[in-house]
UniProtKB/TrEMBL annotation:
<dbReference type="GO" id="GO:0055052">
    <property type="term" value="C:ATP-binding cassette (ABC) transporter complex, substrate-binding subunit-containing"/>
</dbReference>
<dbReference type="GO" id="GO:0140359">
    <property type="term" value="F:ABC-type transporter activity"/>
</dbReference>
<dbReference type="Pfam" id="PF08402">
    <property type="entry name" value="TOBE_2"/>
</dbReference>
<dbReference type="InterPro" id="IPR012340">
    <property type="entry name" value="NA-bd_OB-fold"/>
</dbReference>
<dbReference type="InterPro" id="IPR027417">
    <property type="entry name" value="P-loop_NTPase"/>
</dbReference>
<keyword id="KW-0472">Membrane</keyword>
<keyword id="KW-1003">Cell membrane</keyword>
<dbReference type="InterPro" id="IPR017871">
    <property type="entry name" value="ABC_transporter-like_CS"/>
</dbReference>
<dbReference type="Pfam" id="PF00005">
    <property type="entry name" value="ABC_tran"/>
</dbReference>
<dbReference type="GO" id="GO:0005524">
    <property type="term" value="F:ATP binding"/>
</dbReference>
<keyword id="KW-0547">Nucleotide-binding</keyword>
<feature type="domain" description="ABC transporter">
    <location>
        <begin position="4"/>
        <end position="235"/>
    </location>
</feature>
<keyword id="KW-0067">ATP-binding</keyword>
<protein>
    <submittedName>
        <fullName>Sn-glycerol-3-phosphate import ATP-binding protein UgpC</fullName>
    </submittedName>
</protein>
<dbReference type="GO" id="GO:0008643">
    <property type="term" value="P:carbohydrate transport"/>
</dbReference>
<dbReference type="InterPro" id="IPR003593">
    <property type="entry name" value="AAA+_ATPase"/>
</dbReference>
<keyword id="KW-0813">Transport</keyword>
Length: 367
């Protein structure tokens, strides 16, 4: 088992196509790292460089302290699971599982033992004599994972393995993957653009945008302490409210409501205030600190209403604040509403750079 380390990894395809820019990170034994980000941000390119399918333009890759940057894919002892399953259609499940080991000239007894172990672990025993064409999508995906597990690789790489499954099946297989990889000792690198997968599966998330690593942190810290405006807006559904507000004295102005600013060396003319819809509350009788607005739109999400509120004033542009509210009270459009913004749930970002202004731990960003 071995630690995987990427140092200042860059990939340039053409002068203007630079999908990966200076990415550094480590994945320890037993760690499950997710590369998360929007389409085209460079996730698959990072994974392909780890696998050896693409060469970095600059930077190095280490496995267990050994520089493997120039090693051929076949010599890296990594197992990869693709979105497309990549199973042999003419072979049975059992033969598919065993095929990689046969090529490596593993003894017949060892192959039988490992295939039986993985089959038991993944619940494939009933399916061993079927061919991929006779399996459902979820079953095929389990076989694809089985092919990787059977190899006892030093690193597991998974590229959007659930994206071909429907929503219900995705949830089930996601739980299976969590259980299976929790039992593995090797580092796992998992690519997805689905934040729920990243948050539920990972011990560590690397959030990429435009080829740059935005934050490398635990799912909890990514959610509760986003390093910048991009991370804050990308993670969380419904999305965090991100309001650009004018500053006056030591306050940000939301309509006529004054929100005390954090302790900053200088007060900027404008600042971005972030608050998640689930943290916006309804003022109770006796509350003195609230912002008044009018209900703009009400969306029924089943468990909650997502209520968009218009906050207007003579001196500042109109803002929309979205709140996730219980369904025990109905809200009508244009009704007056008083919202609370608890100070402990406020995030502040610089308008120019987008960086978080407080609570950011730079040391954790490139750990
Ligand atoms: N072989 C290539 N030649 C030129 N450009 C490429 C090549 N492979 C990828 N790219 C470009 O690099 C960028 C990153 O691609 P990559 O596949 O890594 O993104 P991704 O984050 O995995 O996206 P998705 O979620 O859509 O798969 C994209 O703009 C893509 O068009």
């Amino acid at each position: 088992m071995a630690k995987l380390e990427l140092r200042n990894l860059n990939k340039t395809y053409a002068p203007k196509v630079v999908p990966v820019k200076d990415v550094s990170l480590t994945v320890d034994d037993g760690e499950f790292l997710t590369l998360l980000g929007p389409s085209g941000c460079g996730k698959s390119t990072v994974l392909r460089m780890i696998a050896g399918l693409d060469a970095p333009t600059r930077g190095r890759i280490f496995l267990g302290g050994e520089d493997i940057t120039s090693k051929r894919p076949g010599d890296r002892n990594m197992a990869m699971v693709f979105q497309s399953y990549a199973l042999y259609p003419h072979m049975t499940v059992s033969e598919n599982l065993a095929s990689g080991l046969k090529l490596k000239k593993v003894s017949r007894a060892d192959i039988e033992q490992r295939v039986a172990e993985v089959s038991r672990l993944l619940g494939l025993d009933e399916l061993m004599n079927r061919k991929p064409g006779q399996l459902s999508g979820g079953q095929r995906q389990r076989v694809a994972v089985g092919r990787a597990l059977v190899r006892q690789a030093q690193v597991f790489l998974l590229d959007e393995p659930l994206s071909n499954l429907d929503a219900l099946l995705r949830e089930r297989v996601r739980a299976d993957l969590k259980r299976i990889f929790a039992a593995q000792k090797a580092p796992v690198v998992y690519v997805t653009h689905d934040q729920t997968e990243a948050m539920t599966l990972s011990s560590k998330v690397a959030l990429l945008n435009d080829g740059y690593l935005q934050q490398l942190d635990s799912p909890d810290r990514i959610y509760n302490h986003p390093a910048n405006r991009f991370v804050a807006g990308f993670v969380g559904s419904p999305q965090m409210n991100l309001l650009t507000l004018p500053c006056k004295g030591r306050s940000a102005m939301l309509g006529d409501f004054q929100i005390p600013l954090p302790d900053l060396p200088t007060v900027p003319p404008e600042i971005i205030l972030g608050i998640r819809p689930e943290n916006v509350g309804i003022a109770r009788p006796g509350d003195t600190s609230f912002v008044r607005g009018r209900v703009n739109v009400v969306e029924n999400l089943g468990m909650n209403y997502l209520v968009s509120t218009r906050v207007e004033s003579h001196s500042a542009p109109t803002q929309i604040v979205r709140a996730l509210l219980p369904t025990d009270r109905r809200w009508n459009e244009e009704e007056e509403i008083a919202l609370t913004l608890p100070p402990q749930h406020l995030h502040w970002f610089d308008v120019q750079s987008g960086d978080a202004l407080i609570g950011r731990q730079m040391a954790g960003v490139y750990s």
